[in-house]
Amino acid sequence: MKDKADATRSGTERAAILLLTLGEQEAAQVLKHMGAKEVQRIGAAMAKLTNVSREEVQGVITNFTSSVESETSVGVGTDEFLRRVLVDALGQDKAASIIDRINIGRSTKGLEALKWMDARAVAELIRLEHPQIIAIVLAYLDADQSAEVLTYLPPGMRSDIIVRIATLDGVQPSALNELDDIMEKQFAGKSTGKTSVMGGAKAAANIINLLETSQESMIMEQITRSDQALGARIQDLIFVFDNLNELDDRSMQELMRQVPSDKLLIALKGADDNLKEKVFKNMSQRASEMLKDDLEARGPVRISEVEAAQKEILQMARKLADEGTIQLAGKGEAYV
After folding, report:
1. Which distant-in-sequence residues (6+ apart) come within 8 Å of 185 by Cβ?
2. Residue 264 and residue 316 in contact, taking contact as beta carbons nearer than 8 Å
């Protein structure tokens, strides 16, 4: 039977335990095949692991072995096994993107290297490129990195780039390989005719979700002014604070455990009554009573402070969802 502690671990934590049991050289070989964000996520989980019992380690190993044996045997069913593992670990959209890259057979050494770079450095590297090139690069990067890169680009081009990402309908491998070569040359395969799944309104929404509220509002206003239908499509996919209303109780309880009380207090100053009740319901009676008292006693708070606190909590929610700890639901699931 699976160890109780193992059952409460996220997929990232179980992966960290498994890698720690392999030894340094073997773990390093596994990590070499992961992207920057996955390495950072698992590395952070490794650093935080404490009080892992021998029984829990054995449970993780046994569970992993059983999964491998049940899903594949010497190459049989490996595609389906890979798909299930990636979807479980990264979510449907991110897994689809990675599987697409594997199927196409691209190495993307130059573009992949951008994921390890500081956002300011990436912005400096691409800022003089054509906006369409910049859009492709940002669509390739993870949403949180793309959002940060966007803040270092000239304000006048940000909405144009988001529009290009939202209307990007795949990229031919030959074009992506050429761009990859250009990027690789600035640091220092073969085409199947299939387009790579990149861009779209969901990718644009993922990036906008991670911008500061003032930047988000300005960009969305510019997009809607030039293309109302596209603006509405992106807006429908943007995950906002009120969408936390749609979390199931278990997910809300897990999120509340991670959110500092001072941040929650400020964020709720701008929340509607339904969301406040949802939060109160998923706290202990004592904690909810204290929070209610604090909300009544707290004086006016600047809107910018409320928005910043809400953004921070949304980022925590997305991080927990990426780790598989909670499940988000709402506006188009642009954050999966």
Report:
1. 110
2. no
* pLDDT value, residue 329: 59
| pLDDT one-digit tens code per residue, 241-297 | 888 888 888 889 989 888 988 899 999 988 888 999 999 999 988 888 999 999 988
Q: By C-alpha distance, which of 46, 14, 327, 12 is closest to 3?
A: 14
Is the entire prediction scored with pTM above 0.85?
Answer: no
- Tell me which residue of 145, 163, 154 sits closest to 124, measured CA to CA: 154
User: What domains can you pick out in the chain, each with its CATH number?
Assistant: 4-71 (1.10.220), 109-237 (1.10.220.30), 241-322 (1.10.220.30)
- In tens, the pLDDT along 90-108 reads 566 666 655 555 544 344 4
Instruction: Cite the beta strand spans of the chain per DSSP E.
Output: none
From CA 161, how far away is CA 143, in angstroms rounded? Answer: 14
Contact 106, 76 (CB under 8 A): no
Distance between CA atoms of residues 55 and 169, nearest Å: 49
Angle at 121 between CA 120 and CA 124, to 5 degrees: 90
CA distance 198 to 122: 19
Query: Can you tell me the distance from the alpha carbon of 190 to that of 184, in angstroms, rounded to the nearest whole number?
Result: 16
